Amino acid sequence: DAGEHDSFMHKELLEQPACAEAVLRGRLDERFGTGHLGGLNLDARELRAIRRVKILGCGSAYYVGQMGASLIEELARIPADAEAASEFRYRNPIVEPDTLYVAVSQSGETIDTLLAVQEIQRKGGRVIGLVNVVGSAIARQVDGGIYLHSGPEVAVASTKALTNMFLAFGMLAVQLGRVRDLSIADGKRLIAGLTRIPEQIDQVLATEADLALVAKRLAEAESLFFIGRVRGFPVAREGAQKFKEITYRHAEAYQTSELKHGPLALISPEVPTVAIVPDDELVERNVAALHEIAARGGPLVVITHESVDLGDLEGIVAGRIDVPRNERELDPILLTIPLQVLAYHAALELGHDIDKPRNLAKSVTVE
Ligand code: BG6
């Protein structure tokens, strides 16, 4: 049972620092600044031969797959993308021998992901799994992989498994990079960054009381936007997913850059926006977009870093949440944690069954 917690989601949220340590344990090679992922069943030559990476998953696993794709592109400079496994196998997918396919699943039982794996293998493709449940159908089907070591996850809304999916992608991206052009110095920088994440997650979770106050205000809205761009966009998608799953509010994710091409028409004092604004190369553009929203009376909650100067927006934002900085490439997971906490507290405020949202199942095992 959930012990002293009101829900498994809350218990699992708070377990994240310890779970994150578990997925990293024994898999970081600090000397060579690389990952040490024995379960991939791929030697250096095979890793070197990979020309493309295709990531498949459903729901949150798909969104974290998008985060993983951008890690792999940035660190290994291999073209990578993520696709909903539920769509992939219905479009007679092109399967290539020098593509590494990655199936992402907490349960390891999601039928859409399992059938996508089988379709790839039937066409001669190689698939690795990022799976939490040991011995599950996908874990048995794949050609190798990385177990997530999150422990059992009960709440439908994934938290700790999702975080470990991200960390597994981080290690995979560094390892793929280090057999290519990622320098030893960059490798060491990223390995050190990964090592800091458990403690930094703890720091974010320590702000739960502040997040709960912001969540109360968000819970009042019928409709919300979650925005981010490039590395921040999958964060926004995952944030909107979590929010809609357990609060039943309309939460829509958008690229910040696309605001002016459509959704700006919907911005009003009734429609809050949760904006992902890391201190990266896009910060000025992101802050400019916040001005566009503020000018239309849209309430803003900004998930950002302490070093970001919001200027005259500072006095009007409905909530500013600063997360600790890591390496830019690894920041997405730390930006995701407050979104889990916001969704949880908004659902609590609304009195919903947090662990078992209506119409949803933890794993969908039928077509
Ligand atoms: C959905 C769940 O049905 O399956 C989501 O509601 C989950 O929360 C998705 O992310 C994928 O599940 P799994 O087990 O394959 O990661």
3D structure, described in words:
There is one protein chain. The chain has 13 helices and twelve strands. The protein has 367 residues and is of the alpha/beta class. It has a five-stranded parallel beta sheet, with helices on both faces. It has a five-stranded parallel beta sheet with strand order 9-8-10-11-12, with helices on both faces. The mean pLDDT is 96. 6-O-phosphono-beta-D-glucopyranose (BG6) binds next to helix 4.
Order of helices and strands: HHEEHEHEHEHEHEHHHEHEEHEEH
- Beta-strand content: 15-25%
Bound molecules: 6-O-phosphono-beta-D-glucopyranose
Main beta sheet: strand number and arrangement? 5 strands, parallel
What is the averaged pLDDT score?
96
What's the short version?
The longest helix has 22 residues, at 184-205. This protein has helices at residues 8-14, 16-24, 44-48, 60-76, 85-88, 111-122, 137-141, 160-178, 184-205, 208-219, 232-247, 283-295, 331-350; strands at residues 28-29, 34-35, 52-57, 80-84, 99-105, 126-131, 145-147, 223-228, 250-255, 273-277, 300-304, 319-322. 44% of the residues lie in helices and 16% in strands.
